[in-house]
Each structure stands twice: as C-alpha cells, then as structure tokens.
Amino acid sequence: MTLNRQQTRVLLVLCGVSLLFTAFGMRLVQLQVWQRDELARLAAANRERVVHRQGRRGKILDANGNLLANSQSVRIVVADPSITVSNATTIARQLSPLLGMDEPTLVAKLSGAGRYVRLKQKVDEETATKIRQFKFKGLVLEDQFVRSYPNGALGSHVIGFVNHEQVGVQGIEAAMDNYLQGRAGYETIERDRKGREIRVLREERLSPRDGYDVVLTVDQVIQHIAEVELDKAMAEHRPQAGVVIVSRPQTGEILAMTSRPTFNLNEPGQAAADARRNRCISDVAEPGSTFKIVVCAGALNEGRVTLADRFNCENGAFLYAGRVLHDAHPYGVLTVEEILYHSSNIGAAKIALQMGPAKVAEYVRRFGFGRKTGVVLPGEVSGIAHPLNRWTKLSITRIPMGHEIAATPLQMLMAMNAIANGGQLLKPMLIRSVCEPGGGPVLKYAPVVVETPITAQTSRWMTTALRKVPTPQGTAPRAAVPGYDVAGKTGTAQKIENGQYVRKYYSSFIGYLPADDPQISILVSLDDPAGGTYYGGSVAGPVFREVARKVAQYLGLPAQHAESETQVAKL
User: Fold this and answer.
1) Which residues of 199-225 are buried (b: 16+ CB within 10 A; e: fewer)?
2) How many CB atoms lie within 10 A of CB 51?
3) Residue 226's closest CA among 493, 525, 516?
4) For position 101, what pLDDT does the model report?
5) Which residues contact 14 (CB under 8 A, 6 or more apart)?
6) What is the model's pTM?
7) 494 in helix, strand or coil?
C-alpha cells in the first residue's frame, strides 16, 4: 500500500510538471507566434521615437524679389510621458515660468498616456536654450515655422494669411497653398535602456521638403504709393470704403491692388471680417458712366457710328418708354466724341438704340461682364449682367449709363485695359513665377488673351475721345497728370439700398497713360464720399493723378511734353 501511495505522488508530481511545461510552452507560442507583431511594436516603441520635421513654407516675393511673406523658425517643446512621468513634478516646476503654463497642467501632460505630447508651440530660441540646459530625459525640442509678414498691412488683401496649422486662408497664401506648402518629414531615433539617444543608430526616414517660392507681379513700391494715396483720400472724403488698382494694360499684370478698410497680416484675427474682404474682386456695384466705354466702343467697332456723328441730347431730358432720362447738365446736339468726354447719359442711350439690344448685350459679354476675370485670388464674384431675355423696355437706355448691371472694380479696369491695349481683353496676372527655394523658376506665367472685343482702330478712336476727359473740356480736369497725355473716364453711380436708389454714390475714375502708348492703367473708386462732393472727376480724379504721377516717376516714364504742374493743380 505504501508503494502505491508513493507511485501516486510521483505520478501527480510528473503530471504537475507536465502541465507547467505545457503552460510555459503555450505561453511561448502565444508570445512568439500569436502576439509577435504586437510585442515587436511595443519593443520598438520603447527604444525608438519618431521626431517630426516640418518643411519650411515658401516665400512670397514682389516683382523685384522683395520679401512679402516668410516663415521664421521657432521651437516646439515635446514630451514623452512614458519617461517624464517619473519626474513630472520636478520638470513642471522648472518649465512652468519658462513656458508660461501652470504646474498642474504641465504635470498632467507629462504624466499622461501616450509617448508624444506637445507642451508648447512657438518657443523662441532663448527659451529653448534654457530648456536644453536642464537636460531632462524625455523632453525634446522640435523645429516649427511661423509665418511672418514684414510689411504688416501692405498688400494684405493680395498676400492673404495662414491659419495656426500653416494652411493658406486668404489671398495668394490660399490660392497657391499647394506650391507654398512644404512637405513634412520625420526621422526615427533609437534609445538605450536609460532613454539616451544612440546617435549611430539614427535613421532618416523621410526628409522634409521646403515649399516653393511665389513671385508676384505686384511691385512693393507701387503698392505703397497706391495705399498712401488711398489713405489720404479716405481721410479727406471719409467714404465707407475705397479701392485702387494699378496694372499694365499690355500684359494684364497687376502692379498694385488695395482696398480699405484693411488689416495687419500679422494679426488677422484682430480685424473684423469686413476689413479682410478684398473689395477689388468681391464687391459689385453699378459702375455708372465708366460703363459708357462699352457701348460707345461697340458702336464704333460695328460701324454704327463715327466719332463725328451727332446726336440730339434733348437739353437734358429724354422721354423713352414712359420714363424720362436726365443728364447731369443740359446738352443740345453732341458728337459721339463729345458724348464720351461730356458723359451724356442721353447721348449714350441714343447710341445704344442705334446699335439695338442684341448688339449691346453682345458687347457687354465681349468685355467680360457677368463672368469672373479669372484672377488667381479666391473670393472673386461674377458681377451681374442680365441676359437679353430679362431686359425691360428701359434696359436699352439704362445699361449704357451703367445702370441695371453690376461689376467689380477689377472687371471695369480690365475692360478699360482692352481699350488701352489695342482691343484685347486679358486675364489679370498676379503671379509671375513659381521658383525652387532660393533657386530658378519651375513655372512661369504669361499674358492670357480672353477675348478681342474691338479692333485696334476702334481702340485708337476711343483713346482720341477719352484723352479729352481729363481736360477743361471734360468731366475730370483734376485727373490730368503734368507732362503726360491721359485717357480715362469718370463714373458717378447712385447706390441702391433695399431695392431703391438713394442719395449715396460710388465715385470713380479709370484711366491710362501715356495715352498713345499706355504703360500703366489705374482705377480709383470711393464708396459714398462725405462732404457734399461726390462726382468721380472731383473725388477720384485727384487720387488718380497723384498715383499716376508718382508711379510714372518711379518707373521712369519719359514725359511727353512740358506742362506746368501749377497750372494743372488749379484745374
């Protein structure tokens, strides 16, 4: 019996040992086979850390290479809570005054879950140096780039800005984000059992790539001239808003584009949304008499009239379709040329009647109204140009004077450019090239002809008439530029509020010079100037003159003739 009892005990021990080894074996199979990938990942996580490297966002430069937007290098303070948890309180006590964060918040971040947490972004180099001196395990300083705009508000509506993730929100920053945005990279760093980096095992996985630089057609000096003169006009006339655009008629290049109110690019969040809106492309209004260039050019182009043809302007009151159309001043018989430089509403209406509704509608379309100009900036609107089937009986007499149609300032300037440059409607150019960082261009832009609404001969006829506008005979003698022949057109359009015309006005002047070989064109528009003076020639004309005079001097345009500046100032 004793033997049987001993055998039983041995058998039980053997069974127990067998079961134990079986359990060990199953556990090994589980670890080495079933959980192999997961355990390998955890082991790698213990000895490896991924360090992110951000590519620098590309620069925005003006036409002469001057810096308009740049990215400055700062630091991000990053922690690995799996390491810092053991020393979280001490680390938090030291970092709190440097990072401007309270200790409990830092302790929570330093002892939280995960292996990567950002403690502070946009840390300057001085603070980064102090943090390095602590030599805390589990703390790393990563590179980060912050967008900066050295000129503050200059060109704000064109340049635009980025959000906190360095993604373009407005202007060129948004339109060219795919080019400006650098590619992020990373590298994997191996550590020993004490968490120290083993530099010989550092492995670069993906190198960051800096973004491309974008070179604009905008000239920083011309932009400054336009903004200074617009600010003077805003102070003098106190309008609700204002716009100035400067371009090259022959290419469609935009040399300056500004609107008021404006904002500081370095603090876009401090400005109201209304101040961030680019009114050059997002605001529409009835253009008023500047639109007479479309109907008169169309009639000349079709051979329906010549500059010498005469029309009875009815002494300032013309009854048509049961409504009386008035002129600002009573005129009798005027030639087509006189209708343009006197800006007769009745004369323009009679020219349109001679053309017929279908042809008027055709030239409205040919000059680009009712559709976007195609400028690269986001936020452009199409304006309003009703199709012929929506015209009323009065439309044929109202559209020629810039009523029943709405246009952006940029649309009006490009239409005038078509008259200035020999008949080509061009797409506005704001970008000259896209370049490798600090290198040569990878993409170049060239002028694009959208349409040819009129012939070169019609262009010359129109210039002949329009060059009399800024003279004592015309509506804008105060737009005359000493030493240069200027061609242009005034506009004084009543505003519409709640569907009704009110005694508020858009005052504008669009012109180009030298008239025979236009090198620059300029649009000036002021929304509801105060003080009783609201005619385009009186309000916008002087702004045009000062911008044109200074830009011509800056570009070195040779004077065409000697003319006393004192005489012009008296006009």
Assistant:
1) eeeeeeeeebebbbbbbbbbbbbbbbb
2) 18
3) 525
4) 86
5) none
6) 0.83
7) strand
3-class secondary-structure state, position 556: coil
Position 460 scores a pLDDT of: 98
CATH class of 50-212: alpha beta
Give me the pLDDT at residue 129, please: 84
- The pLDDT of residue 38: 62
Question: d(Cα 438, Cα 164) in Å, to the nearest integer?
Answer: 25
Long-range interactions of 331-336: CB distance < 8 A, separation 24+: 334/310, 335/307, 335/308, 335/309, 335/310, 335/311, 336/296, 336/299, 336/300, 336/305, 336/306, 336/307, 336/308, 336/309, 336/311, 336/465
Q: Where are the chain's structural domains?
A: 50-212, 220-265+278-570
pLDDT at position 536? 95
- H or E segment and range at residue 504: strand 500-513
What is the total residue count of the chain?
571
Q: What angle, 0 to 180 degrees and rounded to 10, lies between the N-to-C axes of helices 88-99 and 103-110?
A: 130
Q: How far does Cα 492 stand from its chain's mean position? A: 28
Q: Are strands 48-53 and 185-190 parallel, antiparallel or unpaired?
A: antiparallel
- Return d(Cα 370, Cα 392) in angstroms, integer: 18
Cα separation of 271 and 282, whole Å? Answer: 18
Give pLDDT < 70 ranges for the chain: 1-3, 25, 27-54, 184-207, 562-571
DSSP 109-178: HHTSSSS-EEEEEEE-HHHHHHHHHH--TTEEEEEEEEEE-TTTTTTHHHH--B-TTS-B-SHHHHHTHH
Closest to 436 in 3D by CA, of 53, 56, 54? 56
Q: Which of 279, 276, 280 is nearest to 160 (CA)?
A: 276
Class of domain 220-265+278-570: alpha beta
